[in-house]
TrEMBL record:
GO terms under cellular component: cytoplasm
Keyword Isomerase: no
Keywords assigned by UniProt, alphabetized: Oxidoreductase
Name of the molecule in the record: FAD-binding oxidoreductase
Keyword Zinc: no
Top-level taxonomic group: Bacteria
Record domain FAD dependent oxidoreductase: where: 37-395
The organism of origin for this protein: Paraburkholderia lacunae
GO molecular function: oxidoreductase activity
Length: 444
């Protein structure tokens, strides 16, 4: 195996791989309006899809972004998409807790399935060219116990989420994936991949074309209710709005303390390899599917849209790392799965912040002060956050309560958590140790 110094290619960069095709910027620098119908905090997938729907309905909309649009997780994801088959996934490797009634589990799956329809319709209706391919995804089973648990879910996944799911034995998986580390897999036909940065760029252009004002460098400092209106102070001015929607996910800050203490920010790290030799390009994932594991501390990977590089991601550590440190860790994990890649070097390394919730479910809702929110994708955000933004806009337009959605349940918090994830290094290490123990028992 290469030494740490040999891990990196001569042209290594900590600039995200996706930004070579579209990089976050804002050449327009729109002024913050004084008065709008809807103010949306956060210009990610959720904020922009929400703004797009409101603007098309004819309402005036301002999207307030603390940096420049696209600087957060929306342009930094792995770009895998599916119809919510990971909804409710807990770090234990299990799915929805048995205490969740079966009827609600099925409702969650049905709405997750609808989210995929919305995602595809938004791409189609706005002619967003983002290298979308419906190549399917494989959930690779870390242990036989994980396989047994997934076998019990297949009927519900196909009945309520239209997942097109089927079991792959260890031997069948070997035909899909050139790795011997897994106990088998589940193939999800209704899944695919996008170029996340190009998808974001298309959604941003569509929202602006529909009439939404997207304001860069307009960090929200406070939100206060004033009768039927909200007064929002930003770093670039103050505005009044009838409705406020918070779509900040893993970047929810101190200006919204009640929401901040209900989401746990976690950095997900990624690498892109140098261009692979032709033999590796053809053999690693021959059908170019996306791969996601069932470990507690998950790894996920896929080819780049041109098929020349492997993009490999995961939660390398649960504390701050520089991009070379996270790349070295992910490279070692990649080699554990693909020993044949021992001489392949890392060309790109980056990371973005996702938001976990205490019940591992996405949420949309309304605070006691009348502020709406769409938060908590739990690491599966391309489709779900796009959908939650759209869905919340539709509920507000139609005068329906958030509770009418399967995801409209209260967000949990804990007395010992105030918005700073002090416990994640210890908890993350515990989960990593448990993954190792499970694998050793499997081999024994």
């Amino acid at each position: 195996m290469p030494t740490r110094k040999q891990v990196f290619s001569s042209d290594f960069t900590d600039t995200p791989y996706w930004w070579k095709d579209w990089r976050p910027h804002d050449e327009t620098m729109s002024e913050v309006p004084r008065d709008v119908d809807v103010a949306i905090v956060g210009a990610g997938y959720a904020g922009l899809s929400c703004a797009l729907e409101f603007a098309r309905y004819g309402l005036s909309v301002a999207v307030l972004e603390a940096g420049v649009p696209g600087i957060g997780a929306s342009t930094l994801s792995g770009g895998q998409v599916s119809g919510g088959v990971n909804v409710g996934k807990a770090p234990s490797g299990k799915k929805l807790d048995s205490s969740v009634p079966q009827q609600r589990q099925q409702k969650l799956l049905r709405e997750a399935s609808a989210s995929y329809d919305v995602f595809e319709r938004i791409l189609r209706d706005n002619a967003i060219d983002c290298a979308y391919v419906k190549a399917g995804r494989i959930n690779a089973m870390w242990t036989d116990a994980h396989m047994a648990a997934w076998c019990k879910r297949i009927v519900d996944l196909n009945t309520h989420a239209s997942a097109g799911a089927r079991i792959l034995s260890r031997e069948e998986l070997r035909g899909e994936l050139a790795s011997d580390i897994y106990a088998g897999g589940v193939l999800l036909e209704r899944a695919g991949q996008v170029h996340p940065s190009l998808m974001f760029a298309g959604l941003l252009a569509a929202a602006r074309q529909a009439g939404a004002t997207v304001c860069s460098n307009a960090a929200v400092r406070s939100i206060a209710r004033r009768g039927a209106e909200h007064r929002i102070e930003t770093s670039r001015g103050t505005l009044s709005s009838r409705h406020v929607v918070v779509c900040t996910n893993g970047y929810t800050g101190e200006s919204m303390p009640d929401l901040q203490r209900r989401v746990v920010p976690v950095v997900s790290h990624q690498i892109a390899t140098e261009e692979l030799a032709a033999g590796l390009q053809a053999s690693l994932i021959p059908r170019r599917r996306g791969i996601s594991e069932t470990r507690r501390v998950v790894n996920y990977y896929r080819y780049s849209p041109d098929g020349k590089r492997l993009l490999f991601g995961g939660r390398a550590r649960f504390y701050n790392l520089d991009r070379r440190q996270s790349a070295a860790i992910l490279h070692a994990q990649m080699i554990e799965r693909f020993p044949q890649m021992a001489d392949v070097k890392v060309a790109y390394s980056w990371g973005g912040t996702v938001a976990l919730t205490l019940d591992f479910l996405p949420h949309l809702g309304r605070t006691a002060d009348g502020v709406y929110y769409a938060l908590g994708c739990n690491g599966s955000g391309v489709v779900m956050m796009t959908y939650l933004g759209y869905k919340l806009a539709r509920l507000i337009i139609e005068g329906q309560a958030p509770e009418s959605s399967a995801y409209g349940t209260p967000m949990l918090t804990h007395a010992l958590y105030r918005g700073k994830p002090w416990f994640m290094p210890a908890l993350g290490s515990y989960y990593q140790i448990r993954d190792v123990i499970d694998k050793r028992r499997q081999r024994a």
